[in-house]
Amino acid sequence: MSLSYDFQCQHYDVVVSDRCLTAPTHEDRQQYQALVNNIGDSAVHGPYSFKTDRVTIDPCALPTEFVADEERRDSLVDELITTEENYVSNMTAFCDIIVKPLRLRAKNSKNLIIGLYQCNTIFNNVEQILEVNKSFLSELLIWRSTREAVFGDICAKYLYHMECYTKFLQGVDAAQEINAQEHKTNYNYRLFLQSATQNTRLGGHTLYSMLAQPGQRITRYTMLLTKILKHTDPSDKNHSSLIAALKKADEIATLADDSPTKLAKVFFNMHRSILNCPPTLISQSRTLVSHLDAVELDPATLRPQRPVTIFLLTDKLMIVRRPAYAVRGLDLCGLGNESPAFESVLLKKLEKNSLKSEKQLKFKDWINLGDVEILQGNQGNGQ
Amino acid sequence: MREYKLVVLGSGGVGKSALVCSLQVAVQPAPSPTHSLIFLLQTVQFVQSIFVEKYDPTIEDSYRKQVEVDGQQCMLEILDTAGTEQFTAMRDLYMKNGQGFILVFSITSMVTMNDLYELREQILRVKDTDNVPLVLVGNKCDLEDERMVSREQGMMLSQQWGGKPFYETSARQKINVDEVFYDLVRQINRQMPARDKSKKKFKCLIL
Description:
The complex is a heterodimer. Chain A is built from 13 helices and nine strands.
């Protein structure tokens, strides 16, 4: 946040931990809200994005327009609870009918249908997810009959517990893949699923659609909570906790990695895609500050020699050869796009060696930042 | 029976869920009158108040529907992506497993059509091919008075995308809904013909 006072013409940056915005206790959130109210919340920005190089304005922090409609709000809350009931009953049936028997049989080599590894990849931590949602549902049901607790607080509490969804969602891709593969090759597996899905408790769902449900549920929370918030008076005791709950749901649905993972991913991708790149690049003690697609000039004649990309790290300057003038260095090392799928496509190509070496970036050299001398060229072509 | 994994995508409020449930009603009538109301689901209520009165939240987010296309029984597994509008990574997950895509905009809003460019780009990137079975759908064609996107604009976009089919539908009045799904199934059939299981491989046994 930055606040400015005209008479002083002085800018201050106040950095507030993300935790404050989504603090689980009511008091912490009130304190944060009081701070924001003092300085005006139009000044609140969201997290800094490494890839887009900008600070995004956090939609959750922006005041939403309040529309009083008690009836609508009640029906939305009711919908959240009813759909939660359905979801929990679906997931319970899934765990009872498919997950448990397969896990049990995987432990016994005589009896197994699919191995332990396959079991763990397909089902991941689905039981953990079910436990959280079961408790969430039971508290919601108690709330519905007694109205004693604060609805928003229950949502906030359990959405915090739903961090386990992140693990599941990040693995669901591999899960679907293994499922499809086993389905194709494993006759017993196919037979087991065929008879299991006949069970009416599963309501005609297949394993494929059951694996998709947790992801769908998380985005339903963001939809429903946004709508409920719209009809919640900002002075209501539910308001701040509902914002915290929504923020958390949003965070889970974004499938964002934590910062060490993000950092590791950036360097891992660079290491994989840049030919001859030294493995020591991968380190948690440095970050990529910036990059520049440049042209190497001949020092004597100042004629362009070859396209290069310069990566500025916090401790080093790395120079790599770019295969052509027209391509962007960032695209070639899997960092040019926000989409994780793009990275995986690139990695797959690398694995298959279908990306020819002349189309790859190639490591030239790197030096410590302390050894860099900046010279101003004659015509301002500083190198 | 062959299974088809279809994914319905589009901006919020264009009627994705309404479209899916409209197919359901059309193909398999509900067993009892109370049940026939159940097929309006989650997102529908965000779209129009008219739907809301019939809304019942006892609904699932994915649908298995058995339909007959060109004399072949097909099992459609349709994923409704409602709520994923702002979550790119989440959409990736749906796209990876999808075989055919229904891209929906609302004819009452130009923005919803423009949003589809990015969605299509994402599909092509995720599937890593230029030719993906896909249908462009302009929903809410019953709201002619509020029309902001002309039929020609829809046609043009579908031509730009390599001559993909374009349908104007009304989920509410069940206009053209079945055709969208049938067309997609046919595209998948053309692109990925089912392996002919009737041809048996004979092996030579030497005794």
